[in-house]
Amino acid sequence: MTYTTHTLGFPRVGLQRELKKALEAYWAGNIPQTALLETGRQLRHRHWQWQQQAGVDLLPVGDFAWYDHVLTTSLMVGNVPPRHRNSDGSIDLDTLFRTARGRAPTGKPAPAAEMSKWFNTNYHYLVPEFHAEQAFALCWTQLFDEVEEALTAGYRAKPVLLGPLSYLWLGKTKGVAFDKLSLLPQLLAVYQQILQKLVAQKIEWVQIDEPVLTLDLPAEWQQAYLSAYQQLQGSGCKLLLTTYLGGIAHQLDWLPKLDIDGLHLDAIAGKNELALTLAAIPTHWQLSLGIINGRNIWRANLHELYTELAEIRQTHRNFWLGTSCSLLHSPIDLQAENGLDPEIKSWFAFARQKCTELHLLQRTLCEPDDQKILTLQAYSAPLLQRQQSIRVQDATVQAAVTAIRPEDAERNAVYAQRAAAQQIRFQLPDWPTTTIGSFPQTSEIRALRRRFKQGEISLQTYEQGLQQEIAYAITEQEQIGLDVLVHGEAERNDMVEYFGEQLTGYAFTQNGWVQSYGSRCVKPPVIIGDISRPAAMTVRWSQYAQSLTSKPVKGMLTGPITMLCWSFPREDISRETMALQLALALRHEVQDLEKAGIGIIQIDEPALREGLPLRQQDQAAYLNWAVRAFKLTAAGIADDTQIHTHMCYCEFGDVMPSIIALDADVITLETSRSDMELLDVFHHQAYPNEIGPGVYDIHSPNVPTVEWITQLLQKARQHIPAERLWVNPDCGLKTRAWPETRTALSNMVEAARLLRQ
């Protein structure tokens, strides 16, 4: 047996974020498109080479995307909204960027496509738009060009396709209501053309991703799978149906009837039901096991895995070894981390190391002997040693979690009483204006932080520079006319990393970048042990900002669920326990902010929906402890202290009762790209507290006009009473420049003024 190894995808951005830098340089007009294309070509070849050198047999091709792989699929099947196409109706690379950002170096600006979270990850995808008269056609040749590129270079290519059913599921209908499944026959005709072109390129296996199989699918969608894959099977390619991010045992009453050649299972997220699934699937299918975790950075226990795989091969002798999902969610190379403590570093494995883990398992399964097994044991030893590390366990933290009482998570009064007390304290006008927290992280701010980290300036000089930036942000906001101000977060590198650096139980990387969307990359910290707060984290910066103005300044915190979801978590304790540890640490910060005179405190939870389990049967338990963690953070303060929270792009309907249960005084949302459609669910479920629907799409360089903002707010008023509406951007302004920020916020304030009249 050969036990073929493969990955489901590899990180795109580059070890030094080369793709990010090239994209932003192209968008700014600083490099030609040819230079951008060359950067992409170099990255693809480097990543193929690295995987091959590590021992990966089948290399993913088509996992590279200029912005997002769902958007790439939309272009491939010709599904581009007319507002984003070129004037002659054609599609090119700038069309892709116009769809994603609302603007490209060429062509007329237009509102960008809606963005949403990719299942339960922090990756964002561009939501396909479907119309009743939708037409699909094969229009974008990127996949075939890259396949040819890989084959010419001598690589064994496995093209990666987003499956047709998952593509339809992820999209939204626009205009006249209709059933998305009615588009399937026409879409399948295009997929058949795609597969036929791959056959002509001498491709044997195609990875066709269908992650929606992990969800609870309606019966008509299950039936659609059976007919769709029967139609695709005649293409001549072998189809490896790929599932990930969860198990699929709940589909076993019909899934074994699929006309496919192979099936990939996520043996990490679906581990508890793996045996049941293996017993049910046809023996003639090529089995692929995702046994290396593509979503976390912990080194695999290869000796334990080898034992488990040795048992599986007793009944399934010919299986492939793969990553659980695409390595898109993992940093690239652990060897680039020169600043990590050696003990902590020995616990980790990044994308390149995960490829090596596949190879080590492969060679031991193929020709097991004592030396190879000893190698696996030696590789796994640091994980066993970690169990005894003093960096991991903290008895004081564990006792504090055990001592939490139900009343610790409750405010003293109900919302109506709190709102009355807060109105007396703050005397805010109707349609109060504010921002979400961050202001532009200018080159001067980044240079100041870099010089301090490199030891070129003292702590005193660094903090004086930050005070100047905060003072500038306060002055700008007062001149613009905002009602509730923020200090601008000049001191923060990232909304999670900044707090993690001041908590115990965290570790940090230098180059552990992960793509969130487009050119946006984050560097998630790693939860390695029990979490506590040694000292106040934000109080002095908020207090300094408040000293500069008579207007209220919000204290800005990242909530416990987002701290958890946007970190690489531990795997030896539950997510609930980590969330409660974080909640207790942040609770102390909330109380200290209040003592310092900060009357409005924003606790951001953009990841609340992201952490939701994919199966409905598992969701209630998660939502119960997630809400409890947020309320534990926010409780224990006076009635006239106002709690805000913020949430990013997601399907709020899935978690609406829990959003209500959070009992935040004000919630701000990203709604501008959806044209306020996301407020429908808040209206229908009678959201009782105050809402700030975003009216300024900060992910686009387009500046909204007063008329545009006014129209959006008038739509919002149809869903939410005006006396409970706030006016704010979609998200933080960190990635924007001051000129566009100043103009957009001035327009926002003017729109609020007009509405008050």
TrEMBL record:
Zn(2+) 1 binds at H646, C648, E670, C731. Pfam families: Meth_synt_1 (PF08267), Meth_synt_2 (PF01717). The active site is at H699 (proton donor). One of its GO terms (molecular function) is 5-methyltetrahydropteroyltriglutamate-homocysteine S-methyltransferase activity. Residues 431-753 form the Cobalamin-independent methionine synthase MetE C-terminal/archaeal domain. L-homocysteine binds at I436, G437, S438, E489, D604. Residues 5-315 form the Cobalamin-independent methionine synthase MetE N-terminal domain. Binds 1 zinc ion per subunit. Its cofactor is Zn(2+). GO terms for biological process: methionine biosynthetic process; methylation. 5-methyltetrahydropteroyltri-L-glutamate binds at R17, E18, L19, K20, K117, N122, R520, C521, W566, E610. Zn(2+) binds at H646, C648, E670, C731. CDD domains: CIMS_C_terminal_like, CIMS_N_terminal_like. InterPro entries: Cbl-indep_Met_Synth_N, Cobalamin-indep_Met_synthase, Met_Synth_C/arc, UROD/MetE-like_sf. Pathway: Amino-acid biosynthesis; L-methionine biosynthesis via de novo pathway; L-methionine from L-homocysteine (MetE route): step 1/1. It catalyses: 5-methyltetrahydropteroyltri-L-glutamate + L-homocysteine = tetrahydropteroyltri-L-glutamate + L-methionine. Its EC number is 2.1.1.14. It comes from the Bacteria. Keywords: Amino-acid biosynthesis, Metal-binding, Methionine biosynthesis, Methyltransferase, Repeat, Transferase, Zinc. It is an enzyme of class 2 (transferase). L-methionine binds at I436, G437, S438, E489, D604. Catalyzes the transfer of a methyl group from 5-methyltetrahydrofolate to homocysteine resulting in methionine formation. HAMAP family: Meth_synth. Belongs to the vitamin-B12 independent methionine synthase family. This is 5-methyltetrahydropteroyltriglutamate--homocysteine methyltransferase. It comes from Tolumonas osonensis.
